[in-house]
Amino acid sequence: MNASRAVRNGVFVALAAVLAVALLVALGLFGRDRDSKRFETYLEESAQGLSQGATVRFRGVPVGKVESLSFAWSKYRVPKTDEGMRQGRYTRVVFTVRREFLPDDGDDLAALSRFVSHGLRVFIRNQGITGLRYLDLDVAGPNAASRDLPVSWKPENFYIPAAPSLGKTFQSLLESVGAQLSGVDFRASLDHVAALVSNADAAVGAVRLAFEEQAPAFEQTMVSLRNASDALESLAERLRDDPGLLLRAPDDE
Predict the structure, then answer these.
(1) pLDDT by residue for the chain (253 residues), tens digit each?
(2) Are 155 and 47 within one domain?
(3) Which residue among 68, 89, 106, 143 is buried most deeply as judged by most CB within 10 Å?
């Protein structure tokens, strides 16, 4: 009888302990959700240096922390296409921001959406030379939306797009230039330039030859122009001295 009572007491104590732990966890989660709001963003570049617990800042002011990092395909169903697989490889970053730093405690989704439409983006910053990184919320340029990653699912949390880092932007620029240069036939282009230079040389030679051939006639024309100029100047001087010269016949002189 005593043994049976001891077993019942033991089970009761174990169940009470489990319920207490569950209650503490629930209260902790409830308190965390009440004091902060969850967001998520996606990266199509290396997340090295960014880890759970990393600081989230707004224009340099600490406002929250990174909660988790995973891949999009571990959370969302993506199309079985090349584009779907590309989106599935996004790094999914879930982070929290304390409600005291949000407009209307973060409950006004329209206000948050306006912030995003006006360029609010998530930037990945380096923390000095330590190799660690953090998230920084700030306003990007006027063309921020054109650089947003395409998303084919409905995010579980409020979504703030991430701005590509400087390294990613430079890499994309190099890839774009490389793709354009890959379609250029350099040999044909060089041949075309050589032909243009050759034609230009021929044109210059033809002009030089024509000038040399016409040089005597050109020189004679210049002599005639000089003589005509001298005659006009002499006539002008005579008219200044005797304006009536124009009214007299040549025989009167």
Answers:
(1) 556 665 555 555 455 554 544 444 444 444 445 789 999 999 999 999 999 999 999 988 999 999 999 999 999 999 999 999 999 999 999 999 999 988 876 678 888 999 999 999 999 999 888 889 999 999 987 777 888 999 999 999 999 999 987 655 544 444 455 556 666 666 776 777 777 777 777 777 766 766 666 666 667 767 777 887 777 778 777 777 777 766 665 555 5
(2) yes
(3) 106
Q: What CA–CA distance (Å, rounded) separates 43 from 127?
A: 18
Q: If phi over 0 gives left and psi between -120 and 50 gives alpha, with beta otherwise, what is residue 26?
A: alpha
Which two tokens mark 31?
């308190």
Say if CB 141 and CB 119 are below 8 A apart: yes
- Residues 69/92, Cβ–Cβ less than 8 Å: yes
Number of domains in the chain: 2
214: in domain: yes
Alpha helices per DSSP H over the chain: 2-35, 82-88, 109-117, 166-182, 186-241
107-115: long-range contacts, CB 8 A cutoff, minimum separation 24: 109/158, 112/158
Q: Which residue has the tokens 């967001």?
A: 39
- What tokens were used for 165? 């880092």
Residue identified by tokens 């983006």 is: 121
Nearest to 94 by CA among 43, 20, 30: 43
Same domain, 112 and 56: yes
Same-domain check for residues 70 and 161: yes
Q: How many residues does the chain have?
A: 253
